[in-house]
Amino acid sequence: MAKFFSDALVVFEMELRKLRAWGPIYLFSIVIVPIGTLLFAKALTPPGSGDQVATRLMTGSLVFGIGIMTVNNLAQLMAMERFQHMLKLIITSPIHPLSYALGVVVFAVAQGMLTAGVILSFAPVFGIGIHLNLWLIPVLVLTSLSMTGMGIVIATWSPTAEISNMLANTAGIMLTMLSPVYYPIERLPHWLRWAARMSPYTHAGQAVDAILSGRGGFAQETFILLAITAAGLTLGIGGLRWRER
Amino acid sequence: MAAHAAVTDLAPAPADAALAIDVRSLSKRYAGGVLANDDISLRVAAGMTLGLLGHNGAGKTTLVRQITGELQPTSGGVHVMGIDVVRHYGRARKLMGVVPQEAIPYDHLTPREHLAFFARLRGLSRGDAARRAAELIESLGLGPHASKLSRTLSGGLKRKLLVGNALVGDPPVLVLDEPTTGLDPHARREVWSLLRTLRGRGRTIIMTTHYMEEAEELCDEVALISGGRLAVQGTVEQLRAHVRNRFKATYEGADGHDAVFGETADDVLAELARRGVEEFSLTKTSLEDVYMELTARAQEG
After folding, report:
1. Which residues in chain A have their CB less than 8 angstroms from residue B73's CB?
2. Which residue among A17, A22, A94 sits closest to B121, beta carbon to beta carbon?
3. Quick one: average pLDDT of A172-199?
4. Which pTM does this prediction carry?
5. What are the chain B neighbours of A7 within 8 Å (beta carbons)?
């Protein structure tokens, strides 16, 4: 068991070295997308819309930023290692496939958390009043983790690196756009609400909004998010292809 | 089929010798019906270096990937140090250091970091991994490049790094798929020297190569793969005995470099006398000559 976690730590440390090599580019991509969408959403909001709307914009940017960053980065990282054949070095080493998966998922989640930290730090800059609460951390981690299963499946089963990137982008954007992260679910047409309820980002949005606005009552949404995350990760790990048949 | 019969004729592994690699009736049929390997059986005694030869697409890499367990066979089995690779992949991987053919190093890591990280995956502590990395950097002549990012290294240096990567855990069996491809002659000899040292320490090595000189220099035995089948396995001397022309003489003729082949040295000398050649170099046929004749024969069926 100790080797399982120490191997995952080695994989995480290997990935972390990327920040040294390409740190500024990573930071730019981590920051620019969510901050850009926050600016965009704020520009479309009529002045004097109130704190509730401002908090919702912050929620939307958080969930969107974390979701896109985690799924895209994870799928791209795994696809690159697979198609450039670096993964062969791991596969032929005595490491459990799940140790590798854990290492890269933790790296992707760490990037998601970095994105969250940057976005939250912009709240005072944009004059958005938010309530910070320790529960925000596990909820944001779950938000980040919730779609990693899909990222693993995309990277593992795509026939080429290009297809993997395209699918990861499409999945991330589609899920975020179909999920009511920038607005309450009641604003969606009835026929779309059932689909939105299947998306982890919908529940992440509800939970994060409840925390940031100080309303509380986020336990149920968090529990649903946890259940979807567990199911997604189970599917992702089940779909992880290691040896070729 | 005749060629298969020759396998047992040429290379009967001694019954009492410990087998490091035991490949039995291995076949691989890919989805779509392509038969990449067909009923290959070969045995590598512990401490032996076996070279796998064959033209591009002959099935060498498929065989190597099946031996390392990366590719599951359609039928047949592989045992490494007595461990069933198909059923106990996790245990088997601990016994093997591998240089995959297409792999490249993690390009955002330096060679020192690369070797140390993979040493840790082999169970070494941080300190031991750093020491092992330093040893390998020294023995592979990577010192001047140890702290550069791998993406800035030449193709040959990357290949050397991968060879080092296969050695980090000091495994008893090394599976090297074209380990010296892309290396300049000097670097190739450095790798040869390292492999000779490992062989001297009793490591079992199976390697593919397109360099006949390399196979002749390093391998105790060679196995010739053709059309996904094992055509022949044996020492270079045994393979040479298997071909018609065992001797050759080279000389400068009126039209440039020329050669005479013969079954015996006397046959060659007689032919040279008939041609009126007085200055020549008489040798046994090279492995390349043997390879050319045997592959041609195997392809004819």
Report:
1. none
2. A94
3. 82
4. 0.85
5. 120-121
Residue among B69, B84, B73, B62 at smallest CA distance from B230: B62
Partnered with residue B45 across adjacent β-strands are B19
- Say whether pLDDT at A129 is over 70: yes
Listed in sequence order, the residues at least 6 apart from B2 whose beta carbon sits closer than 8 Å to its beta carbon are none
Q: A245: which chain B residues are within 8 Å (Cβ-Cβ)? A: 72
Secondary structure in 3-state letters for B55-66: CCCCCHHHHHHH
- Residue showing tokens 């079954």: B263
For chain B, say whether A209 makes contact (Cβ under 8 Å).
no
The ipTM, to two decimals, is: 0.87
pLDDT above 70 (res A245): yes
Q: Please identify every stretch of chain B with a pLDDT value under 70, giving residue numbers as ranges.
A: 1-17, 301
* B226 lies within 8 A of chain A by CB: no
Cβ distance A3 to B123 less than 8 Å, yes or no, reads yes
Highest mean pLDDT among A80-89, A122-131, B240-249: A80-89
Structure tokens at A198: 């299947």
Chain B CA closest to residue A3: B123
CA-closest candidate to residue A20, choices B150, B114, B109 = B109
CB atoms under 10 Å from CB of A122, counted, come to 16
Alpha carbon distance B165, A166 (integer Å):
33
Closest CA to A109 of A132, A80, A77: A77
By Cβ distance, the residue of A10, A84, A94 closest to B104 is A84
Q: Edge-to-edge, what's the strand order for the sheet holding B229-234? A: B96-99, B173-177, B204-208, B49-53, B221-226, B229-234
Q: Name chain B contacts of A21, Cβ cutoff 8 Å.
A: 108, 149
- The Cα angle at residue B189 between residues B184 and B194, in degrees rounded to 5: 130
B297 near A CB under 8 A: no
**First CA to last CA distance, chain A:** 27
**CA B280 to each of CA B248, B254, B283: distance values in angstroms, whole numbers, following the listed order:** 10, 13, 10
Q: What percent of chain A has pLDDT over 90?
A: 35
User: Count of CB atoms within 10 A of residue B192's CB?
Assistant: 17
Structure tokens at B47: 């401490």
**With contact defined as beta carbons under 8 Å apart, do A208 and B36 qualify?**
no
> Is the separation of the CB atoms in B95 and B173 below 8 Å?
yes
Please report where in the chains the tokens 């020192």 appear, as a residue: B112
How confident is the model at residue B301, as a pLDDT? 64
